[in-house]
Design goal:
By secondary structure, the protein is mostly helical. The protein has a 3-stranded mixed beta sheet. The longest helix is centred in the middle third of the chain and has 34 residues.
Length: about 300
């Protein structure tokens, strides 16, 4: 029975990460262990930053939001993926698929913009230190946070709007473990060339330009820092290096998946696994392991509760 947007497909069948039961079991155990260890770490970062009066600088404000975004992002794919590993038939409804697509791009787009905001924060701190407290005041930080949430929403709603206009009236097997734009578009019962180009422009080109812009900005920062003789030189280099690592982890898989024609490659599933499950949990942890203030605050918080 057709509905208003000519969609007759009511559900999609996910073919999963692999057809091998042994590999599925191994991946299930590894992801479950990883998930149960790292996810609480992200919430610990948020708790530490919110509870320590000494961590009120904009850098920590944005780091706490990064942990929140990544923790939220990890709930979109990983839990369902773990359940599907134990299910013989992996099925997701049409509405569930669209919802998954929306939140993936909403939170993913927001995180990409957050990295841009954090780069701007580092630029002001390193290149305009005398103006830092004026420019990055609490009101400005909250305005930037609102802007990145709005930007992520606009990016995502554009993706979903194009998908909703496509008719799905035949094949319903997605060769993946979650609903992603390239695979869903390929199932549409119409010519999708124009839609694919629009999607590449919306996701791929935006990700690529942000990636190149961020790398260029941090290259300028590092050159500026190396040319200075300030006492905080090593700390600034460490912070910028950490940001660059996260940029590669966040943008690399997105560029690989969304900046080329929507054709399947053998590495797609592995890249998607790291992009949707592994890296979102690791990003805030990378920041924390290289940030002495946050680690010291965590130790104080732990000692207070133990005592």
């Amino acid at each position: 029975m057709e509905n208003d947007n000519s969609t007759v497909v009511k559900e999609f069948i996910l073919l999963g990460l692999t057809q091998s039961q042994d590999i599925q079991l191994l991946v299930f155990v590894l992801i479950l262990i990883f998930y149960l260890i790292i996810l609480p770490g992200n919430f610990l970062i948020i708790l530490t930053i919110r509870s320590d009066p000494g961590l009120t600088a904009p850098l920590y404000f944005f780091l706490g939001n990064l942990a929140f975004l990544d923790a939220s992002y990890s709930f979109i794919v990983a839990p369902r993926m773990l359940v599907d590993f134990l299910s013989e038939k992996k099925v997701i409804s049409y509405r569930g698929c669209i919802t998954q697509l929306f939140f993936l791009h909403f939170l993913g787009g927001g995180e990409g913009l957050l990295l841009v905001v954090m780069a701007f924060d580092r630029y002001i701190a390193i290149c305009r230190p005398l103006h830092y407290s004026t420019v990055m005041n609490p009101r400005a930080c909250h305005a930037l946070l609102l802007a990145l949430w709005l930007g992520g929403f606009i990016h995502s709603i554009i993706q979903v709007a194009f998908i909703l206009r496509l008719p799905f009236c035949g094949p319903n097997q997605l060769d993946n473990f979650f609903c992603d734009v390239p695979q869903v578009i390929q199932l549409a019962c119409t010519d999708t060339f124009v839609v694919e180009l629009l999607m590449v422009f919306n996701s791929g080109l935006m990700t690529l330009l942000c990636f190149l812009g961020l790398l260029a900005s941090y290259a300028v920062f590092l050159c500026r820092v190396y040319g200075s003789s300030s006492e905080g030189k090593s700390k600034a280099v460490s912070t910028c290096t950490t940001h660059i690592i996260v940029i590669f982890l966040m943008s690399g898989p997105g560029i690989f998946i969304h900046t080329r024609p929507f054709r399947a490659f053998p590495a797609d599933k592995v890249v998607s696994l790291f992009h949707t499950v592994i890296f979102p949990l690791l990003n805030p942890v990378i920041y924390t392991l290289r940030n002495q203030e946050v680690k010291a605050s965590m130790r104080r918080l732990f000692n207070q509760h133990v005592a």
